[in-house]
Specification:
heterodimer; A: alpha/beta; TIM Barrel; eight-stranded parallel sheet; 9 helices; B: alpha/beta; Elongation Factor Tu (Ef-tu), domain 3; Rossmann fold; 2 domains; six-stranded antiparallel beta barrel; 15 strands; about 35% strand
Chain lengths: ~300, ~260
């Protein structure tokens, strides 16, 4: 058995050579990071959230540092789904890694349009963002109620046979209930958590640092919240969970998987160190080698008190 | 090709009030670095790297020089590093640096405050064919005057309060200069109000102009899209990204506030 095969994970009908995936919105469409390492080293790539038409996003500043984390309010800047399908997807499909299209819309019709277009492509999976905190219409509006989440899941499910993974917002009372609503409408998986809504103010000017006033908190600061929500969700649904939120090291990845995540996305940590995904993968290999286990054996293995 | 790694600091000096000057031995990066590019530096204990312009490229010695203002806790942590210690950098970054014309071209190079350091390599390129207009708030903030003069360029030092050089803004000096001569190109880096004024002056006089922009940054490579700046692309407003589309932009493309 090769070292690499210890890390293989089958998830919603798709095989990942390892569980480490750069998170949507932190990795563009992959091109920039190929300057550091071949994308084939990654389990998969969740691309920048893509909408039906191109979007310019929010005015800057779009980022603010926080203790052990950061706020962002990019506002879904992207070149639109047609550009993705024509220009980015063919490139990504040559990279020997799982390509996850991340999509967002301001209404159900937009989600339907995008998912329909993707259905006839060779994208491997669709991650449906119902949790973007940085746009005025749509986005998180759907992710904060069971009805909204169910409605978008049903809408996307109706137009695609691709594996559908719903990306959930932590800005809710019970994320497990939202996940169950997605599962009941045919979602193949859920991913969580998107960012936590936050705010910073420059006390010299009296203005919020972000031009959007508020933005999404990510980074190590949110990690314990993410672990808790992954654990609660994994215990509530029968579909697999992709965990994210502050994962920065292989130890964090193990912890997230013990909580119930089958895959792990890495976001803000890329800004501190672009090599993070490779370091996590290497750490996971050593961990499995030392314990002589298959990585998938640790999924949900936490022994609660 | 981007590199990420920990490289030794081979010299460190505090050269003015709250201004730190570091030289880093990083031959592989120095070999690839271009005028106008930057590096993204890890400050221990902080989430986000600090983007700092490259102020000197010495390919023979394999070194890069940076000068930064100690402005907050992160840059303070960076300034606490000593000679011989390692500094974690991602570099060389920036998809577009300064366009260098033939050395015989006439260039006007304008730096405002901590916007002065990235102008030094341009002055080195043009030497005696360059005029450098170097502006600061006051004498205590003045840096790089020997370096700039050493390039052979004519240097006009300005301070807002007149405590060093001539009193007034760099834009006043530029107005006088372009009354008498027509440079082939103007380069500028500094506060956005200064860049906006220079861009207008250059446009009015019909002189090519490039500006180096700054914005709060995340990944530094174009993956996160946070460092947006308003530009005109193909006749339409487009939020470009300082890290990948810049940091240097043709002045006429930038929509200043």
């Amino acid at each position: 058995m090769s070292d690499m095969s210890r890390l293989g994970i089958d998830f919603a009908g798709v095989h990942f050579k390892n569980p480490v995936i750069p998170a949507s919105g932190t990795f563009g469409y992959g091109r920039e990071f190929e300057e550091f390492y071949p994308l084939s080293a990654l389990g998969g790539i969740s691309v920048k959230g893509t909408t039906a038409a191109a979007r310019n996003g929010n005015l800057p500043p779009r980022i603010a540092e926080t203790p052990s984390g950061m706020l962002n309010s990019v506002g879904l800047q992207n070149p639109g789904i047609d550009h993705f399908i024509e220009k980015e997807l063919p490139y990504l499909k040559t990279k020997d890694t799982v390509v996850i299209a991340n999509i967002a819309g301001s209404d159900a019709e937009e989600y339907r349009t995008i998912a329909q277009k993707l259905d006839s492509t060779d994208v491997d999976m669709i991650e449906v963002n119902i949790s973007c905190p940085n746009v005025k219409a749509g986005g998180a509006a759907f992710g904060v109620s069971c009805e909204g989440a169910a409605h978008i899941t049903k809408t996307v499910r109706a137009v695609t046979k691709k594996p559908v993974m719903m990306k959930l917002s932590p800005n809710v009372t019970s994320i497990a209930d939202i996940a169950k609503a997605c599962e009941s409408e045919g979602a193949d998986a859920v991913s969580l958590i998107n960012t936590l809504l936050g705010m910073r103010i420059d006390i010299r000017t009296g203005r919020p640092i972000l031009h959007n006033n508020v933005g999404g908190l990510s980074g190590p600061a949110v990690f314990p919240v993410a672990v808790r929500m992954v654990w609660q969700t994994a215990n509530a649904v029968n579909i697999p969970v992709c965990g994210m939120g502050g994962v920065s090291s292989w130890e964090d990845a193990v912890e997230m998987m013990m909580a119930g995540a089958s895959l792990v996305q890495v976001g803000a940590a890329l800004f501190a160190d672009p090599m993070t995904p490779l370091k996590i993968t290497e750490g996971l290999e050593n961990y499995c080698e030392d314990k002589n286990i298959m990585l998938r054996s640790i999924i949900g293995s936490v022994k609660p008190w | 090709m981007y590199r990420q790694g920990a490289y030794p600091i081979i010299s460190k000096n505090i050269i003015a009030a709250n201004t730190c000057d570091l030289t880093i031995l990083c031959p592989d990066i120095a070999a690839a670095a271009q005028c106008g590019q930057f590096m993204n530096i890890k400050a221990e204990g902080f989430m986000l790297r600090r983007p700092i312009s490259i102020c000197g490229i010495d390919r023979e010695k394999g070194t890069l020089r940076i000068i930064f203002e100690i402005r907050g806790k992160g840059t303070k942590a960076l300034s606490a590093l000593s000679e011989g210690e390692l500094i974690d950098i991602v570099a060389p970054l920036g998809g577009r640096g300064f366009t260098l014309l033939d050395k015989s071209a006439k260039a006007v190079i304008i730096g405002g405050g901590i916007g002065n350091p990235p102008m030094l390599p341009i002055a080195e390129h043009y030497g005696k064919n360059a005029v450098v207009i170097s502006g600061f708030r006051s004498a205590s903030a003045v840096i790089l005057q020997k370096d700039l003069a050493g390039t052979g360029a004519r240097v006009i030092l300005c301070t807002d309060d007149g405590t060093a050089g001539r009193k007034g803004f760099v834009t006043d000096a530029l107005s006088e200069l372009i009354c008498n001569e027509t440079p082939d190109i103007i380069y500028a880096c500094g506060p956005s109000v200064m860049l906006k004024r220079i861009a207008a002056q250059a446009a009015e006089a019909g002189i090519r102009c490039e500006v180096s922009l700054e914005e709060r940054m995340g990944c530094g490579v174009g993956g996160c899209l946070v460092c947006a700046c308003r530009t005109i692309r193909n006749g339409e407003e487009y939020y470009a990204h300082v890290c990948k589309d810049g940091p240097v932009f043709p002045a006429e493309e930038v929509l200043f506030e």
